[in-house]
Amino acid sequence: MTVSMESEQKSTAQLPPTDSKERVSELMTSLQDQICKGLEQVDGVETFQEDTWIRPEGGGGRSRVLQSGGIFEQAGVNFSEVWGNHLPPAILSQRPEASGHGFYATGTSMVLHPRSPYIPTVHLNYRYFEAGPVWWFGGGADLTPYYPFAEDAIHFHRTFQQACDAHHPHYYPTFKRWCDEYFHLKHRGETRGVGGIFFDYQDSEGILYPLVYPGTHQSTAAAKYSESVGRVKDRTWENLFAFVQTCGNTFLPAYLPIVDRRRHHDYGDRERQFQLYRRGRYVEFNLVYDRGTIFGLQTNGRTESILMSLPPLVRWEYNYHPEPGSPEAELYETFLKPQDWVNWSSGV
Amino acid sequence: MTVSMESEQKSTAQLPPTDSKERVSELMTSLQDQICKGLEQVDGVETFQEDTWIRPEGGGGRSRVLQSGGIFEQAGVNFSEVWGNHLPPAILSQRPEASGHGFYATGTSMVLHPRSPYIPTVHLNYRYFEAGPVWWFGGGADLTPYYPFAEDAIHFHRTFQQACDAHHPHYYPTFKRWCDEYFHLKHRGETRGVGGIFFDYQDSEGILYPLVYPGTHQSTAAAKYSESVGRVKDRTWENLFAFVQTCGNTFLPAYLPIVDRRRHHDYGDRERQFQLYRRGRYVEFNLVYDRGTIFGLQTNGRTESILMSLPPLVRWEYNYHPEPGSPEAELYETFLKPQDWVNWSSGV
Question: Does the complex come out with an ipTM higher than 0.85?
């Protein structure tokens, strides 16, 4: 495909409906409400405390945090809706058509840090941008176990696979690979966890993996898969909106059964110490690599809402290596590498 | 000053002595030895464990860590010496003359995390680069108290001021301001601590603050001071080497008296929890802003040595604010802002 063909196609991009911002904003607040309600029910001890805030440059948000709960040591669920005169350079380099235009962005993001080392940490984010002639959806959810169970990784992935397949057969295979690629700690040679789905810049142009991220190149697995399936026809604003809505609704059924299966596992100091150590990787990823976090910190976002993703207690230990054959070693050997979880058949 | 004049001056840069690398490397290992010996004496319980490592692309290092000591919860002191075909783009943009040349770099760096919240965390780094026609020294030391004492900040600064003044009257005023500027957490609106000195790109060109850092501009206090004093004449490789040697030797007398004054202060859970919380800022600075850390992580440095700077235990707490009038509030109000510590006269 040549550049000139791409440019030609781009001019045919659908316009969003006139009430697009209101509809997505309403979806994002509903998602925050639904998730908070589901998490409070499973936690059973604590409830979310809410702070609303206003962004002086335009917009604001609603941050909710649950601390010292029955299940969750900390759970943060944010909604925000912001607008301004121009997108930051990192985004404009991927969407040059947005240059010289104001922008609107809204999204919901969440990170849960359970107390038990047997319950995985989990992250979710869905977002929507409009800027001049362009608009796009992004998002995903990924799971980070400490003492992992293949059964949990399989459940999480299959649930999102079904959700994706209901909208397009190429979504899950592309966005699963993209997730493995994005949540990768290069300096550790590890994925953040067992992944899930991740996507960005989804619009009616029909290219599933439409960009070259800094530090990646078109030979990534996600890019290759996207190339192999070619342009996906007939995607509209409406069906992408519906897809994101489905993904959002899929979080609780993907995660809560895992909590239920693991909440009564006993653990001791060894497991707790390993969990605190592994939480350090979450900090490393979010502060070194995560574009949302870095963008927020460098552009006067609300620091306390952005850093709500960081764990309440974390440990670093120089030159730690798990004992060969231990449960901790199993995490490294099997679960911190990209795996085909939906087709997993080992006895792990 | 015009660009063409600067270019003209640059051509007069001194060549380093033929044995420059050996002499700086020996200085850096001696500094590591001296510091480790002094810290073991004051710790009294634990000793440093050493790992030597080889960098496949050229060079290697000697990492030393003391864990769970009498004074130090963790102390990391690294020496490294590396070489390769080209410097990374971020450095080349500041030193374009190095383009197309191989490079040599050596340095010693240290971060100490004491157990007591009354003993400040402290960082030191001295480094030397050669690349084609250019060479330079960089480094500094800065102090990060939790429950602060003006007396300690004054002692630390006056000790480095005396060391600097023995070499040049403009060094301390420039490098103190540069330190406040560099160790600044923009997203928190705080300095990392009470500062100290920081300098980079020091060569025989005679410009004390010779560059524009990303995110800063020539109106910074350090840049203004440097401009006001103009070019510093007659700096040679030899007297910069001697200056760095003096700075290195100044660390123990700047820090150990503070340890001695604070080591017997009793503290409880409140102070410990606040220390763990404030350690989070150290993590945020090192992973979000510190160019050495980010450069190391993104270029296949030895991860365990680079991240030895991170604290052994850290806490984050959503939307924490110190109680007005409390000792914790005093830290924020007085000690996390640039202050003229050498002339400090308040009763704090």
Answer: yes
| CATH topology for the B3-343 domain | oxygen-dependent coproporphyrinogen oxidase (3.40.1500)
List the end-to-end C-alpha distance of chain B, in Å, as a whole number: 43
Task: Provide the 8-state DSSP code for B331.
Answer: I
The interface residues of chain B toward chain A in range 276-315, judged by CB-CB distance below 8 A, are 276, 280, 283-284, 287-288, 294, 297-298, 300-301, 303-304, 306-308, 310-315
Q: How far apart are CA B197 and CA B178, in angstroms?
A: 7
Entry pTM: 0.93
Q: What CATH architecture does domain A17-343 belong to?
A: 3-Layer(aba) Sandwich (3.40)
B153-168 pLDDT, tens digit per residue, is: 999 999 999 999 999 9
3-state DSSP assignment of residue A340 = coil
Nearest-by-Cβ selection for A288 from B67, B297, B312: B297
Contacts of B52 in chain A (CB under 8 A): none
List own/partner pairs for A232-237 with CB under 8 A and 24 or more apart.
Answer: A232/A168, A232/A170, A232/A206, A232/A207, A232/A208, A233/A206, A234/A206, A235/A168, A235/A202, A235/A203, A235/A204, A235/A205, A235/A206, A236/A14, A236/A204, A237/A14, A237/A15, A237/A16, A237/A17, A237/A20, A237/A135, A237/A204
Per-residue model confidence as pLDDT tens digits over B177-214: 999 999 999 999 999 999 999 999 999 998 999 876 65
